[in-house]
Amino acid sequence: MRSWPDPPASRPLSWVGEPPLPSRPTRRSARRSPPIQPCGSEPGMASAVRYNQPAPHLGRRASPHPAVPPGARQVPHPPRASPLRSHEIRERFLGFFEKRGHHVLPNASLIPSDDPSLLFTVAGMVPLKAYISGERTPPSARLTSCQRCFRGSGLTTDDISSVGDCTHHTFFEMLGNWSIGDYFKRGAIELAWELLTQGFGLEPDRLWPSIYPDDGDSLDIWINQVGIPDRRVARLKDNWWQAGPTGPCGYDSEVYFDMGAPCSCGRPECSPQDECGGDRWIEIWNLVFMEFDQAEDGSRSRLPQRTVDTGMGLERMTAVLQGVRCNYDTDLFVPIIAGLERRASGGRDPEQRARSLRVLADHARGATFLVAEGVRPGNEGRGYVLRRVIRRAALHARRVELAGGLAGAVGDVVATLEATYPELRQHRGLAEATIRAEEEVFARTVEAGSDRLEAILRDGTSVISGEDAFRLYDTFGLPVELTIEMAGERGVSVDRAGFDAALQAQRERGRAGRAGGGWNAPLTASIGAPAEIVATSTVSIDTEFTGYEELESRASVLRIGAAPEREALAVGEEDVIFLDASPFYAEAGGQVGDTGTFRWEGGSATVLDCVPLAGGPVRGRAHRARVEAGTLRRGQAVTAAVDVPRRAAIARHHSATHLLHRALRELLGETVVQRGSYVGPDHATFDFGFPRGLAAEEVQAIERRLNGAVRDNLPREVREMPVAEAQASGAMAFFGEKYGERVRVVGFGDWSQELCGGTHVERSGDIGAVILVAETSIGQGTRRIEMLAGAAAVRRWEETESLLRETARTLRARLEEVPERVGRLLEQNRELQRRPREAGGDAVSAALRATEVTGVGAVRLALQDDPSLGGDDAGLLVDRLFAERLGGDGVAAVFGQSTLCVKAGGAALAAGVDAGRLVATAVAASGGRGGGQPGFGRGGLGVPGRRAEAVTAFRTALEGAGR
């Protein structure tokens, strides 16, 4: 943690809810003072447990399963409290704070919903940012939670390589409590001390707090209120918290647990203040006190509302309370590692084997949760992080010869954590399939990548160039972090700056090629609002949504325009309008926004869209409208009317997606989970997690089941209830989706129940009919179904019928004869195409016999230059040369009449040969174009008279690549 300039010296101000601290009272006077209860302690309960007050013994029923696994490395002097299991630690922490007036927050998604700057929820306070900043009102001034977190995107290579030691993790759980404008330092410290010593039963003399050197207030509390000896309060420059160069900041105070002298550096005066490199001092809790606001010039002022933000890592605290030295020896990991042990048959070095098993256990947890949250392996953003985690684990799986790979650990992860995260059960199959597929893809590329890396290392280099590292990533799919780790094991470093420069150059080229707008263009463009709409939010406008009950409402115009605000709109002008009440559904949950009209005396406007503005100078339900007649003024009373036929068409498609989701789970299995959707008036798409494409028979069966539910005319039922009650009732909620305290459940009969805020038909029969028009892949492990409902389905049937009749007339056949007649024509066409290929087979065989295999450096080459060969024959010849003359090891190249085909494999790839680049270089010499992948390339030769130049350029490029 960085040391920031010292805050201005000043005494704390008097705050409501916590009296000002005395000015350095003596310990005697402090102990005589009556107990202070700034935290709203229960009657008869002391607000703090003093250092000299013994902790009670925690009596519990004995668990049939020991919390401390057999063989775990024990702390030299275990804590006084008998071991607690991890789920008991969660419950005890949350229960402690709930009894002291804290509202228990639900576990938020790993994917932040309100912060595009973060890939993942990296700390417990991330879901609370809007509460802490004042943008939203918290349900209570006191909050507590156990929040799942993931760190992997912002870590340096050294950090991620540390995962597998005793304390580092990608996925972890953070326990925390917050005070927003309520208690401050004194309350936070006293609550922490009470929980640690009374709630968890830790011995007081093994707890050492730390403070910022100039934080006299915290020092007073630790010494004079809690009773810690002065020598046991460490002064650390790191105890200053700041999220960035500007904004909220303040002191923090940490609590360290003493693992015992045998874990220390050996010096008698060893303390948390010494950076001695020992493992004696384990930080178990960090209490952050946000009280200053730092400006750009470095000056600080008091925040209008002080905040306490604390964090306690569950994994680390579990290790302390279970009396073990390593997080991986706790009940959070031991069942997973035990499963890995049974399947791992390799790894001679015990330490390396143990480290690999810890990496696999951690990455199995992280990958399982990311897949459950909807992340899929990819080359950008969250997908790249997941790919990196799976591939790093795959390397460790190879080292210990792990049968079943990382995917085989998903079941143990689910079994270990499903009591806390029951949603994991329904995602187990998808997680296994996704991880296994990525492992298989990686296995096909890592061999060549590892061979190429070995070839580079054999050259005796001490630094792998950025260009080589980028080629390993770009060509062979080897993440640079793995290259660094693998090279580091051989004492070789990597030019990371050079790699980053090469990667950035590639991205710039990609962006240039994709320049222009797109479906994900900024919201400001989609609603026609000025760019300033993305500035810091200053105004929040509440609009009562009346669209569930009525499609036309009387309303008043509260605001015109987002930035800047306008007084009026004249004929032909367009801007965003905010009302006090509106029947218009604002785009959300995949459903598009409503359109319609505003009418008022002497004027009217067309409502072109309705969207929720979540960022910018204004937040609220924004209606993009264009005035058609009269003038629309702020304060004007209007009649807001939704386009009823369009709303009905949208409702049909939305209800159809609910029925489709139920049909998919019924016919394909309960592991099918929705990943996204688009619901419009003309069509709908439904994205879901599934490891393979659907057979035509499966699509037909799903469509039949779906239309059967439509014919059943199931009644729609809408209920509002607490989110926990909704999930317990079986309503489908999506892991990773953010829900409020109360949710809306939409059901059709007892067949389909989902959490949903959209608009729907009254009965399933109102949908009319549904057609599934396409089923495709949109990414690894994710499928998309496109569907039409109601009038759109009828139009498609009519169009299909018309096309079929036209085809029958062209073929001079009856409708039922069309498939057989088309099949006969296709077979005749194939026969006509087969004849010239068979005639050319003799030419290919002759060219095969005439081709000699030569050597270019260490690379074997089979090259044929035959202008008589057409494109198909050139492709056939290069395949036969590669397989029959080279045995798949070397480079085969055929210069045909106007085509160049090149195939490479084996030692050639390991030596750095890239068939696609060879083709691009050769055909460019003749004025042609081409390219491809490392294993195969194809291109068109340009000017016929420059054929010899192309052959020469090919040989020269191959000689350079094979060196």
Helix content: 25-40%
What is CATH's topology name of the largest domain? BirA Bifunctional Protein, domain 2
Largest sheet: 9 strands, mixed
- Whole-number count of domains: 6
Q: Give the low-confidence spans.
A: 1-66, 77-81, 154-158, 510-538
Structural features:
alpha+beta; BirA Bifunctional Protein, domain 2; nine-stranded mixed sheet; six-stranded antiparallel β-barrel
Structure description:
The chain has 963 residues and is α+β, with helices and mostly antiparallel strands. The protein folds into six domains: 27-32 and 77-266 and 275-329, Bira Bifunctional Protein, Domain 2 (BirA Bifunctional Protein, domain 2, 2-Layer Sandwich); 333-447, no CATH class; 459-511, no CATH class; 523-642, Elongation Factor Tu (Ef-tu), domain 3; 647-798, Threonyl-tRNA Synthetase, Chain A, domain 2; 845-961, Diaminopimelate Epimerase, Chain A, domain 1 (Roll), CATH 3.10.310.40. It is 36% helix and 22% strand. The chain is built from 25 helices and 35 strands. Strands 1, 2, 3, 4, 5, 6, 7, 8 and 9 form a nine-stranded mixed beta sheet that branches. It has a six-stranded antiparallel β-barrel with strand order 14-16-20-19-18-22. Strands 30-31-32-33-35-34 form a six-stranded mixed beta sheet, sandwiched between helices. β26 (742-748) and β27 form a beta hairpin. α24 packs antiparallel against α25 (947-961). The protein is globular, with a radius of gyration of 34 Å.
